[in-house]
Target: DNA 3'-5' helicase
Amino acid sequence: DHAAQSPLLSTLNPEQRAAVTLPAEHALILAGAGSGKTRVLTTRIAWLLQNGLVTPGGILAVTFTNKAAKEMMTRLSSMLPVNVHGMWIGTFHGLCNRFLRSHFKMANLPQSFQILDTQDQLSAIKRLCKQHAIDDERFPPKQLQWFISGCKEDGQRPANVEARDDETRRKVEIYQMYEEQCQREGVVDFGELMLRSYELLRDNDPIRAHYQRRFRHILIDEFQDTNRLQYAWIKMLAGQGANASPDMPGGAVLAVGDDDQSIYAFRGARVGNMADFVREFHVQHQIKLEQNYRSYSNILDSANALISHNGNRLGKNLRTDQGPGEPVRVYESPSDYAEAQWMVDEMKQLHREGIDRKEIAVLYRSNAQSRVIETALFNAAMPYRVYGGLRFFERAEIKHALAYLRLLENPNDDTSFMRVVNFPARGIGARSLEQLQDLAKATGCSLHDAVSALTGRAGAAIAGFVAKIDVLREQTSGLNLRDIISRMLEDSGLLAHYRAEREGADRVENLEELVSAAESFVMQEGFGRDAAGMTQSAGLTQSPASQGLSGEAIEQYGIEPTDLTFGDTGETLSPLVAFLTHAALEAGDNMAQAGQDAIQLMTVHSAKGLEFDCVFITGVEEGLFPHENSMSDRDGLEEERRLMYVAITRARQRLYMSHSQTRMLHGQTRFNLKSRFFDELPEEALKWLTPKLPAPAAFGGAGRGWQGGNASGYSGGYGNQGSSGFESTRYPAGGTVRVEKEVVRRDESVNGLVVKQKVFHAKFGEGTVLTLEGTGDDARAQINFPRHGTKWLALSVAKLTPVP
Ligand code: ATP
Ligand code: MG
Model:
């Protein structure tokens, strides 16, 4: 009996133990939030290794984020002396990157291929459209990006896309041209990492056979959010399906997931992969975990009650032995600013009570909400960290610096070329660049190579830029990463540019932070310590040396020799390429202020799998959460509800949910009703904190730290924010507004309208009045338009006609 021998198992419940000690066969763990799925997955790896049932090289584990991968490796190395460094633990993208790096030749890629993140991809598409004079009204670049990524997620190359109409046919042509451009420039986007890995496995028998033989155990967390292509990739690696060879059984797949937490349908995730998996892999072992170890029952009951409103569920139970705990606190505030202020006050109190800041998380539905919260935290001098959103590596100045670095590595990277050819300004005009692009197109070469054919003044200026890069490449060859970056920052003129800028101090700091980031990257990856460290690195792992392992342990658990010799080359990646890869793949959030005790800010999407002592869910309002884009159809609404389920279940001890009557978002003031999700929570688990409504003129901001027109960009009051989808509310000119406590009247008539009345609007069509507020010029109505969602309209402006 393994349980008796292994302390690994002693802390698990019987179902968890059964899952950890399953035989080497396909299995599915389907269980609710906080039931220990991730813990089981990690412990299983440790258990398999400890009992000699697999070597570290025989494990492939897919996690949802880099953060999760790191956590898993840390936990593994705390459980047993294993070289986590050599193990394939990472995200789909991280693992595919590693795979393509090992087989770059067969994948038809340059060794130092660069990765385009979502932003880079969009600029590459924009550039392509410009070059081919594609009408961006008919084919908006963002839409093209969506189309291309969607095709790739479905595993479709241009030749496989079924185009039934002219519009789609044209899109497919653009997709084709985009692919050629990427290939020419030696860059791959996120979708390409996955698709190319898949195709390489599919089309190359020896490689497929090698990996099928190698990975004895394939473990996948958050399986409910895999897309079609990822599922196909797993199937291929596990030797299932059409390419299975009868004489060689593939590895055992353990899929772990929760259908109630499937929140990426909008990006192609297919919850149906779970059912397909059970059927196509002939899964014999399905394990349910029903004990929640994370949250007190008030929190868990709220989550359970909410999710029970969804129709399409596989059905699971979840209970906890912890007591009821504290009630879920609900707060209503008059404005998003007041909401943020309340939150910060509450956080200060929590911190005084001894809760670490990093155990306090603020979750929001969309990134745009973070600004107000950040301002409040900043004013209160409360350290915080924002995950997702504008990540460190996505900031403009960092992108510029990375573009220079990429050009050092690969002069043919046209996206980077275009980004910095005239940044800082060198007097190179759009016209000259167009000429250059035409030349490059005509001769089929890169912008860098086309320069020599360009004549005249324009030619000289651009040639000057190219020479600068070429010289810098020469001068930095052989330098260490830190020195390469420092040198580039000076010679490119970037530092000088931002130093001269009036508000450039932050950017200069960020550029300096890039040097520190590079340094800590080099240290973490252990460059120069061992050869394996370099080939195996991809921003994913720690070197064995830094784990303090004995040589014996490295030998015992080390990388299989085949790992190092099977790939295209035994050569190592340069630290620069490894760092650029890391910048593209890593969220970058472990860079700035790593290790500091800070409040955690993130979207609900990026909170998946994580847990915190205290959680604030903010902006729980109709139109925001559920999001207005998802409110009109049932599937959309159910996904929003799952998202709320994920949010609620992140909390261990204390949960706050707040909503605000007004909110500045995307430059408009919106009047929002509290979310319908509140009605789906059990009243007995909630505690409504009675808000103290502020004195008149509170929104104007004077004296509350949010002065109108301050750096936060909030100009105080409801200006004239009229724009599409929202009629402008007319308030006295000058911004500052008189706001009194307004009572929502449900049965009185306002400007001739009553609640529940049907009205017609020229743009939004027929709708039903939900709420009426205010009087005279300030009168406004909330109206639900089935085709356009729920909107607040100012009655003095909106042209509404009653429908009989
Ligand atoms: P999610 O669906 O949110 O990803 P999960 O099912 O992966 O959740 P884990 O994160 O693995 O759940 O576990 C939730 C918490 O419960 C963790 O803090 C974990 O350490 C703890 N836990 C899990 N199993 C046990 C157990 N048997 N005894 C004590 N604590 C446990
Ligand atoms: Mg988990």
